[in-house]
C-alpha cells in the first residue's frame, strides 16, 4: 500500500516534500500534481520504476517519455536545444507544455524514443511539483497519468488512491486538478510541429 500525503497546494510542507524525495530516491514511483492533471514519476536511473509506470499505463518502451525539470538550467544536459527553441522555452515555462527535442548522449537510452532518439522536456507550473523537483535536485522521469481507455489525465487524488494505491509507492494529494494533458510541441526537426493540443495555449506557436 502506498503512502498518501496531503500537500498544501500553495505552501507545500517541507517535511512532506523531504519524505517524498527520500521515497523516490529509494526507488519509489510517485503520483504527483502538475498544471495539467496528475503525473507518474520516478528517478531517471530507476529501471524497475519505469517498468512499473509502463505497466500501469499499458504503454511500451517506445512511448515518448518526459523529464520534468525544475528550471531551464537542467535541460541542456539531456536535450539539444537551439536558440529559437530556448527562447520558446524561456517565454512559455513554467507552463502546461511538453517540448520534444533530440536527446544528448547523457540521456539514458531507455528513456529516449528508440526510433527518433528524442525526449520530452517539461517545467510544470505547479507549486508542489516545483518544490519536489527542487528538493530532488535532478529531473524526474515522468509521464501524464492517463489510464488505459482514457484520453484525459486523472484529476481526483482520492479516486487515484482507490485505483492505484497498491501499484505505486507514493501519492501526493494536491487537490482537484484540470483534466487536460499538456500541449506537446516537437522541436526535434527543422519544422516545429504541434503534436497535441492540450492545456497550454497554442498562440505562441502558430
Structural notes for this entry:
This protein is of the alpha/beta class and 206 residues long. It is 25% helix and 22% strand. It has a single domain (3-198), classed as DHBP synthase. It has five helices and ten strands, in the order βαββαβαββαβαβββ. It starts with a strand and ends in a 10-residue tail after the last strand.
How many strands, which pairing sense, and closed or not: the largest β-sheet? 10 strands, mixed
User: What is the CATH superfamily classification?
Assistant: DHBP synthase
- Looking across the biggest beta sheet, what order are the strands in? 1-8-2-3-7-4-6-5-9-10
Approximately how much helix is present in the residues? 10-25%
CATH architecture: Alpha-Beta Complex
CATH topology: DHBP synthase
Using the CA coordinates, give the radius of gyration. 16 Å
Stretches where pLDDT is under 50 for at least 5 consecutive residues are: none
What class, by secondary structure content?
A: alpha/beta
Shape field: globular
Overall pLDDT, averaged? 94
In the residues, how many domains can be counted? Answer: 1
Secondary structure tally, helices: 5
- The string of secondary-structure elements, in order, is EHEEHEHEEHEHEEE
CATH class: Alpha Beta
Count of distinct strands: 10
In terms of DSSP E residues, the strand content is: 15-25%
Amino acid at each position: 500500500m502506498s503512502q498518501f500525503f496531503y500537500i498544501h497546494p500553495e505552501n507545500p510542507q517541507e517535511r512532506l516534500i523531504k519524505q517524498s524525495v527520500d521515497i523516490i530516491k529509494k526507488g519509489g514511483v510517485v503520483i504527483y500534481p502538475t498544471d495539467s492533471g496528475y503525473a507518474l514519476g520516478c528517478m531517471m536511473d530507476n529501471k524497475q520504476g519505469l517498468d512499473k509506470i509502463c505497466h500501469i499505463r499499458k504503454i511500451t518502451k517506445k512511448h515518448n517519455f518526459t523529464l520534468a525539470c525544475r528550471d531551464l538550467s537542467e535541460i541542456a544536459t539531456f536535450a539539444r536545444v537551439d536558440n529559437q527553441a530556448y527562447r520558446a522555452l524561456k517565454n512559455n515555462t513554467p507552463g502546461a507544455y511538453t517540448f520534444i527535442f533530440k536527446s544528448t548522449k547523457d540521456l539514458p537510452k531507455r528513456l529516449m524514443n528508440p526510433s527518433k532518439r528524442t525526449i520530452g522536456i517539461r517545467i510544470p507550473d505547479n507549486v508542489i511539483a516545483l518544490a519536489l523537483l527542487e528538493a530532488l535536485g535532478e529531473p524526474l522521469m515522468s509521464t501524464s497519468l492517463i489510464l488505459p481507455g482514457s484520453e484525459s489525465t486523472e484529476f481526483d487524488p482520492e479516486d487515484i488512491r482507490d485505483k492505484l494505491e497498491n501499484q505505486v509507492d507514493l501519492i501526493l494529494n494536491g487537490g482537484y486538478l484540470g483534466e487536460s494533458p499538456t500541449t506537446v510541441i516537437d522541436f526535434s526537426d527543422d519544422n516545429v510541429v504541434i503534436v497535441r493540443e492540450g492545456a497550454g495555449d497554442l498562440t505562441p506557436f502558430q
